[in-house]
UniProtKB/TrEMBL annotation:
A Gene Ontology term for the protein's cellular component: cell envelope
Keyword Metal-binding set for record: no
Compartments, record wording: Cell envelope
Protein name: Polar amino acid transport system substrate-binding protein
A Pfam match: SBP_bac_3
First and last residue of the signal peptide: 1-20
Keywords, sorted A to Z: Signal
Organism of this sequence: Variovorax guangxiensis
Keyword check for Electron transport: no
InterPro entries in the record: SBP_3_CS, Solute-binding_3/MltF_N
Major localisation: other
Length: 258
């Protein structure tokens, strides 16, 4: 009888040990962390000809890895598969221009914000847009599953020709090539379009949402979330967040929400 109870107790202890093994424990044990980042969303993330990624989100990922004292494995993701990549445990963190909203908070947890961002509608000066009602009859490119896509759905009137693309590169290409009249995207991406294609005469039209970027963490991984929050807080106090924002966005991070 004592032998049987001993086995049962051992089994319970073993089960408890497995459950106690958090993502942070695994990261520190293996001295490696997988972080999902955007490969096609400059200046937050892009890939050069040597297949090396760079941008604000990549710098932030490497900064967190350095603070944890572990190697960083960068996992390229699209807007549509950022959350599934985290849920399937293919990455421990998602640092990919991820905005926070109630629907997403049901699926994953978020750290404090680490960089500024806002979404808007942009188009050529010759396209007359003064209100959302003016979108009717206009064609507009947006990345499927992005915050821009969700916000556009809320305000676009009947008759708006919304054309969704699976990644940001295709979305931008559709606008630049003239396939569509407008684009719903982040201000930083629009700025890249303006600088790279001055002949288009691209200008700001309508604000969709102020949406600071947060880091995504899998549900239940509170130890990892709290550790990353401590790193973000330290970076905010030291001026590192402002430095990264100035480097890539030419504006300080400012007073970001927790």
């Amino acid at each position: 009888m004592q032998f049987v109870l001993g086995l049962a107790l051992s089994g319970l202890m073993a089960t408890g040990a497995v459950h106690a093994q958090s993502a942070l424990d695994t990261i520190l044990k293996n001295r490696k962390i997988a972080i999902a980042v955007p490969p096609d969303f400059p200046p937050y993330g892009s890939m050069d000809r040597d297949f090396k990624m760079h941008g604000l989100d990549i710098d932030m990922a490497n900064y967190i890895g350095a603070k944890l004292g572990v190697e960083v494995d960068l996992i390229p993701v699209t807007s549509a598969n950022r959350i599934p990549t985290l849920q399937k445990k293919k990455a421990a963190l998602v640092i990919a221009t991820l905005g926070k909203n109630p629907d997403r908070e049901k699926q994953i947890d978020f750290t404090a914000a680490y960089s500024p961002f806002y979404q808007a509608i942009f188009g050529a000066k010759t396209v007359n847009i003064r209100s959302f009602a003016d979108l009717s009859g206009k064609s507009i490119a947006v990345t499927r599953g992005s915050v821009e896509d969700q916000e556009l759905n809320k305000v676009a009137p009947s008759g708006t020709d919304i054309r969704r693309f699976d990644d940001n590169t295709r979305t931008v290409s559709a606008f630049v090539s003239g396939q569509v009249q407008l684009i719903a995207t982040g201000a930083s991406v629009a700025n890249t379009i303006m600088v790279g294609n001055p002949a288009l005469g691209t200008t700001y039209k309508l604000l969709l949402k102020e949406s600071p970027n947060y880091i995504g963490v899998a549900k239940g991984e509170d130890a990892l979330r709290q550790k990353v929050n401590a790193i973000i807080d330290e970076a905010k106090k030291s001026g590192e967040l402002d430095r990264l924002s100035m480097k890539w966005l030419e504006r300080p991070a400012g007073d970001l929400p927790q």
